[in-house]
Amino acid sequence: MIVRTNVKYCANGFDLLLMIPDNTIKTSFFDPQYRGVLDKLNYGNEGKQRGKQRCALPQMSEETIIGFVRELNRVTVKSGHLFLWVDKFHLCNGIGVLGWLNDTEFNLVDMIVWDKCKIGMGYRSRRKSEYLVVLQKFPVKAKACWSDHAIPDVWQEKVEKVHPHSKPIELQKRLIAATTVEGDIVLDPASGGWSVFEAAKTVGRDFIGCDIEFGEEN
Asked: How many other CB atoms sit within 10 Å of the CB of residue 177?
């Protein structure tokens, strides 16, 4: 199979990654489907209202997520970026995000808080944010690899929910434009609502990605 750009593939993201050559992608996004909050914090909303669609999605084990991150490391160019979506549980868990980076060349260089402009679940504080961890493959560079120096580290954007994990297109547009140039390919191996695809098209970049459930072409 030849991987074409700008196609909404219905496929396993890991299989897609295996077809991408080493050191070819400058910018990737990854939104792993994990169960940290549902399984560990026991909020009791399993299968109810807001949690129903989220619970129905295929879940990734820790081993699967680590496998994805290692493959993303392989296909990323030197000093390229991976934007990794995480929740509060994985961010604060000592063996969470950093554990996923073992045996890779990724370095944690920044983080952006996405204020979703709506209140979510929680027993104590209520969830209103998600977190985008900015990873850069060795060697770490700033000026030569990041062109937009006005992106705030708290980003407010309300999104239309087209998927249980819809993400902010405007933020992703800024990040793609900051870390790529025309002709570069943006990668998302777990595309979900295809927000990265839409963002890439808007700023004139090509896209490679797939989703195991929400793709349109095999």
From this structure: 19
Contact call for residues 77 and 26 (beta carbons, < 8 A): yes
- For the segment 129-140, the average pLDDT, to the nearest whole number, is 97
Compute the distance between CA of residue 133 and CA of residue 85 in angstroms, rounded to an integer: 6
Sequence-ordered strand ranges (E) for the chain: 9-10, 25-30, 76-86, 106-115, 129-137, 154-156, 185-188, 206-211
Task: For helices 169-179 and 195-202, give the axis angle rounded to 10 degrees.
Answer: 50
Give residue-wise pLDDT tens across range 63-82.
999 999 999 999 999 999 99
CA distance 148 to 50: 35
List strands edge to edge, sheet with 25-30. 9-10, 206-211, 185-188, 25-30, 76-86, 129-137, 106-115, 154-156
pTM for this one? Answer: 0.90
Calculate mean pLDDT across residues 47-55: 51
Tell me which DSSP letter residue 44 carries: S
User: How distant, in Å, are the alpha carbons of 43, 67, 109, 111 from that of 133?
Assistant: 25, 18, 8, 4
| Residue 128 CA: distances (Å) to CA of 119, 153, 154, 156, 157 | 5, 15, 12, 10, 11
Q: pLDDT (tens digit, 9 = 90+) per residue, 158-199?
A: 998 776 778 999 999 999 999 999 999 999 999 999 999 999
